[in-house]
């Protein structure tokens, strides 16, 4: 579906609001370990606190149940994801995965090359969030030309270390 060029976007920002029982641990994980810059922080009565982290460009990926099952199967080998899973594009999925595990995440699946040519790792993170960190293994031009099917003859590139 192509968006009209002369029509301004209606939505300016996607903001996901997550309740975290251990606010400090969640902030330390996502801000300090994952590296999301702090955009703002506010405090209110009764120890009310919120930290807004900049996660770069946001998209909303809506998958049907069959697609969700297929992604779990490819990335993990079994069904594990809840209805909502956060995915963060990073420059180095292996190093980021190691850093997040050291910061308290539980590895669900190690970095795995997917048929759509990204290196994806699954983790259970603070605030009861199930996350993917992924590294694109092809440049934007290569991704645009790739159909993503993983068909024979379209082999994945060697994984980066």
Q: Briefly, what is this?
A:
The chain has a single domain, classed as Roll (2,3-Dihydroxybiphenyl 1,2-Dioxygenase, domain 1). The chain has helices at 23-33, 65-75, 93-102, 140-145, and strands at residues 38-44, 48-53, 86-89, 106-113, 118-125, 129-136. The protein is built from four helices and six strands; from the N terminus they run H-E-E-H-E-H-E-E-E-H.
Task: Describe the 3D structure.
- The chain is of the alpha+beta class.
- The chain has a single domain, classed as 2,3-Dihydroxybiphenyl 1,2-Dioxygenase, domain 1 (Roll).
- The chain is 24% helix and 25% strand.
- The strands form 2 sheets. A 4-stranded mixed sheet has the order 3-6-5-4, with helices on one face. The chain has a two-stranded antiparallel sheet with strand order 1-2.
- A hairpin with a 3-residue loop joins β1 and β2.
- It starts with 22 loop residues before the first helix and ends in a 16-residue tail after the last helix.
- The C terminus is likely disordered.
Reading side by side through the largest sheet, how are the strands ordered? 3-6-5-4
What's the CATH class label? Alpha Beta
Strands, count: 6
CA gyration radius, whole angstroms: 17 Å
Topology pattern, helix = H, strand = E? HEEHEHEEEH
Keywords:
single chain, 161 residues, 2,3-Dihydroxybiphenyl 1,2-Dioxygenase, domain 1, four-stranded mixed sheet, 6 strands, 24% helix
Could you give the topology of this structure?
Blueprint: H1 23-33, E1 38-44, E2 48-53, H2 65-75, E3 86-89, H3 93-102, E4 106-113, E5 118-125, E6 129-136, H4 140-145
Parallel strand pairs: 3-6
Antiparallel strand pairs: 1-2, 4-5, 5-6
């Amino acid at each position: 579906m192509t968006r009209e060029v002369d029509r301004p976007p209606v939505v300016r920002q996607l903001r996901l609001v997550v309740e975290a029982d251990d606010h400090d641990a969640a902030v330390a994980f996502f801000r300090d370990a994952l590296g999301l810059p702090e955009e703002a922080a506010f405090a209110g009565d009764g120890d009310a606190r919120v930290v807004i982290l900049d996660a770069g460009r946001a998209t909303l990926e809506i998958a049907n149940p069959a697609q969700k099952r297929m992604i779990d199967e490819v990335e993990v080998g079994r069904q594990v994801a809840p209805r909502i899973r956060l995915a963060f594009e990073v420059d180095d999925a292996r190093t980021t995965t190691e850093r997040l595990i050291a910061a308290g995440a539980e590895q669900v699946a190690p970095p795995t090359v997917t048929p759509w040519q990204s290196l994806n790792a699954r983790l259970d993170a603070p605030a009861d969030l199930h996350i993917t960190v992924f590294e694109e293994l092809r440049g934007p031009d290569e991704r645009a030309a790739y159909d993503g099917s993983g068909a024979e003859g379209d082999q994945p590139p060697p994984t980066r270390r």
